[in-house]
């Protein structure tokens, strides 16, 4: 998370709310537009693509296959391996020459933990399932968008899951809670809390916090997230259904 409340190069914190609206014109509890496409990568077991505001992210799933190297195997259940990666051209910021940086390692870990909790791993002892999240263009909230996309990619692979997770973040600027922070809001707001949820029983699969929120703000933020989750879940399911709609049309 990009250092909530940090100053910009000129030493000024930009005004994020002007005339009761956010800089991109959104209301406080309004998400950016989201478009999800399920499938697309022929050689992957499952895949999905998302455009979430200015974020463009591809997720791919490989496996289940024999876990290698062998010492990574778990005889009881599948191991989940996850790689979140930002393409060098995905933002205006400097990216390392090669290999994951600390941030990418962290996001890979939290993404893996989300899916370890929903994939029915006992069905595939000794195997591994690989999840790749490739950020092609970034504008804040890529870990949340990546999790949302990877969930759809996993669903298209047919790997059994107990739930279809989604993620979104809520933050605070001045006295306002704001939903789905873009990059400027992420960088200059007072707090940022990305959350992943399993909607079946609203289980919390990820909760990070940069900056501070009071208990009351966390509770209010969580209800904004769950309300947004209804829309996100609907879009995920529509994306999963879309390839079959044209087939169904033939039998109308
Ligand atoms: O993307 P997310 O909000 O989950 O993670 P972040 O670490 O809070 O980063 C916020 C945003 O800063 C990212 O979405 C990118 O747009 C940008 N960023 C970047 O361009 N290069 C980096 N090395 C790190 C962040």
Task: Please summarize what this structure is.
With 252 residues, the protein is of the alpha+beta class. It contains four helices and twelve strands; from the N terminus they run E-E-E-E-E-E-H-E-H-E-E-H-E-E-E-H.
Distinctive features:
alpha+beta; 4 helices; single chain; Ribosomal Protein S5, domain 2; five-stranded mixed β-sheet; 29% strand; 252 residues; five-stranded antiparallel β-sheet
Structural class: alpha+beta
Rg computed from alpha carbons, rounded to a whole number of angstroms: 19 Å
Strand order of the largest sheet: 3-4-5-7-6
- The oligomeric status of these chains comes to single chain
**Total count of helical runs of at least 4 residues:** 4
Q: Which parts are unreliable, with pLDDT below 50 for 5 consecutive residues or more?
A: none
The named CATH superfamily: GHMP Kinase, N-terminal domain
CATH architecture classification: 2-Layer Sandwich
How widely separated are the two ends? 48 Å
| Largest sheet entry | 5 strands, mixed
Q: Got a strand count?
A: 12
Structural summary, described in words:
The chain has one domain (21-250): Ribosomal Protein S5, domain 2 (2-Layer Sandwich), CATH 3.30.230. The protein is built from four helices and twelve strands, in the order ββββββαβαββαβββα. It has helices at residues 102-116, 142-157, 183-188, 215-250; strands at 17-18, 21-22, 34-38, 46-52, 55-66, 79-86, 127-137, 166-173, 176-179, 191-198, 203-207, 210-211. The strands form three sheets. Strands 3-4-5-7-6 form a five-stranded mixed sheet. Strands 8, 9, 10, 11 and 12 form a five-stranded antiparallel sheet that branches. β10 (191-198) and β11 (203-207) form a beta hairpin. α2 runs parallel beside α4. The longest helix has 36 residues, at 215-250. The protein is globular. The model has no long low-confidence stretch (mean pLDDT 93). Residues 1-2, 91, 93, 95, 103, 138-143, 183, 186, 194 line the site of cytidine-5'-diphosphate. Cytidine-5'-diphosphate binds at residues 1-2, 91, 93, 95, 103, 138-143, 183, 186, 194.
């Amino acid at each position: 998370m990009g250092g909530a409340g940090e100053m910009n190069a000129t030493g000024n914190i930009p005004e994020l709310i002007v005339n009761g609206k956010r800089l991109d014109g959104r209301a406080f509890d309004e998400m950016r537009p989201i478009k999800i496409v399920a499938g697309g990568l022929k050689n992957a077991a499952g895949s999905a693509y998302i455009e979430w505001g200015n974020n463009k992210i591809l997720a791919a799933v490989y496996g289940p296959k024999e876990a290698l190297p062998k010492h990574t195997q778990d005889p009881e259940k599948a191991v989940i391996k996850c790689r979140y990666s930002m393409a060098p051209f995905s933002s205006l910021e400097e990216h390392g020459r090669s290999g994951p940086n600390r941030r990418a390692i962290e996001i890979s870990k939290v993404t893996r933990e989300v899916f370890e909790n929903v994939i029915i791993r006992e069905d595939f002892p000794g195997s591994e399932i690989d999840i790749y999240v490739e950020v092609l263009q970034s504008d804040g909230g890529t870990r949340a968008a990546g999790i949302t996309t990877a969930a759809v990619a996993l669903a298209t692979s047919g790997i059994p899951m107990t739930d279809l997770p989604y993620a979104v973040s809520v933050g605070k600027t001045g006295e306002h809670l704001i939903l789905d922070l873009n990059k400027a809001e992420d960088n200059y707001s007072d707090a940022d809390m990305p959350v992943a949820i399993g909607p079946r029983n609203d289980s919390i699969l990820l909760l990070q916090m940069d900056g501070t929120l009071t208990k009351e703000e966390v509770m209010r933020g969580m209800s904004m997230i769950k309300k947004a989750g209804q829309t996100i879940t609907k879009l995920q399911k529509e994306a999963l259904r879309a390839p079959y709609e044209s087939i169904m049309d033939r039998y109308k």
